[in-house]
Write a structure and sequence with these properties.
The structure is a single chain. This protein is mainly alpha-helical. The protein has 3 domains: 128 residues, no CATH class; 61 residues, no CATH class; 99 residues, no CATH class. It is built from 12 helices and 8 strands. A 3-stranded antiparallel sheet has the order 2-1-6, with no helix packed on it. A hairpin with a 5-residue loop joins β7 and β8. The radius of gyration is 58 Å and the shape is rod-shaped. It starts with a helix and ends with a helix.
């Protein structure tokens, strides 16, 4: 008879010392056993085939998963956990030495074996779950050639995964036919190949022309596209030159309005360009009008009026005024003749000489 008190303790059930009254009972299964688990229960009538009943051929075929217990008193038991209809949560071990052991599956999935004949066992070895359609270990049915192919594939995967990032990128870009040869090379040779290809790519991307808009064209670009970019830049240069000539022609025309001022035409144009650079429109307009008025005044001063001619005093004053402007230019070499004359006319001496030169 099984020691119920010890088994209950092992199975995680409360001990017999605490009594409970069951008012509602639902029976899902009734099993007949020759070793009852309840204290005081007996089995006066039990039909069985014998000690070999639990190890018949049919049961072995249905059993999909089993485990072997540890050895106690020179024996161990087999525990079937699956009989083809899913995992079992409780049962009995195989019959050995006139007894078997009850067992239950705990909430964490582990197996707890109960006590019988004064001892219990632990789970020692869990067997491999068999394939119902193909008994035995599938791996054992592979041929030596298949095993060799699997080992070669595993070695290839390890070799590829061990490649540095740049070599791996090059390997992935190769065709299936070229990959083995690259992988068979030494690390130094593979690294040299990748470096040479990188240098070639860098050379192919060397800048051959930089357009005026900032676009850079490399060797890898279509030559026709580069030629078009150069042609567009040349057209822009020609247009800029044409616009500059048009501006110069306009300045030549405007310079005629201040032709009586001292200096050459180029000097007058530079004076006009300087005035055009004044941002204040009102100040720019006043400066232009002042130049025009001064040019008109000088034209009236040096021109003939009826039959009168320049007096010796006026000629002497003009000569001194010119010399005064030349002396000012010698001290200020960055000024033009017109700018020097303009500066001299603003001095007291220059104004006096100008008054003498304009007297008739």
């Amino acid at each position: 008879m099984t020691n119920v008190r010890n088994f209950s303790k092992n199975a995680g059930v409360q001990s017999v010392g605490k009594r409970r009254i069951m008012r509602v009972l639902k029976i899902n299964e009734i099993s007949g056993v020759d070793v009852p688990a309840q204290q005081g229960a007996t089995a006066p009538i039990m039909k069985r085939h014998g000690a070999q009943d639990n190890s018949n051929h049919e049961q072995n075929l249905l059993a999909k998963k089993a485990c072997l217990t540890t050895a106690v008193d020179g024996h161990s038991h087999i525990l079937y956990m699956d009989h083809g209809n899913g995992e079992l949560n409780a049962g009995e071990t195989s019959w050995v030495n006139g007894h078997s052991h009850p067992w239950v599956r705990l909430p964490d999935g582990s197996i707890q074996i109960g006590e019988a004949s004064g001892h219990s066992h632990d789970v020692a070895t869990v067997g491999k779950q068999a394939d119902a359609n193909q008994p035995g270990d599938p791996e054992m049915s592979k041929t030596p050639e298949q095993i060799a192919a699997m080992e070669a594939e595993l070695a290839l995967t390890k070799s590829v995964n061990a490649l540095p990032a740049d070599q791996r990128a090059h390997y992935d870009a190769l065709s299936e036919a070229d990959r083995p040869a690259f992988l068979a090379k030494s690390d130094a040779d593979r690294s040299n190949i990748v470096k040479q290809l990188a240098d070639l790519a860098k050379s192919a991307n060397a800048v051959v022309y930089k357009a005026k808009d900032g676009t850079e064209y490399t060797k890898s670009h279509d030559p026709l596209l580069v030629a078009m970019a150069k042609r567009l830049d040349a057209q822009d240069d020609e247009l800029a030159k044409a616009n500059e000539k048009a501006k110069d022609a306009e300045y030549v025309k405007r310079a005629g309005e201040i032709a009586n001022l001292p200096g050459k035409q180029e000097d007058h144009i530079e004076m006009l360009k300087a005035i055009d650079g004044i941002k204040d429109e009102a100040a720019r307009k006043r400066s232009i009008e002042a130049l025009k008025a001064q040019s008109v005044a000088l034209g009236n001063a040096f021109g003939e009026s009826g039959d009168s001619f320049e007096t010796p005093e006026a000629a002497d004053a003009n000569e001194k005024l010119d010399q005064l402007a030349k002396n000012y230019m010698a001290k200020n070499v960055d000024l033009t003749e017109a700018q020097a004359m303009d500066a001299v006319l603003k001095t007291r001496e220059g104004r006096e000489l100008y008054a003498q030169a304009t007297q008739q």
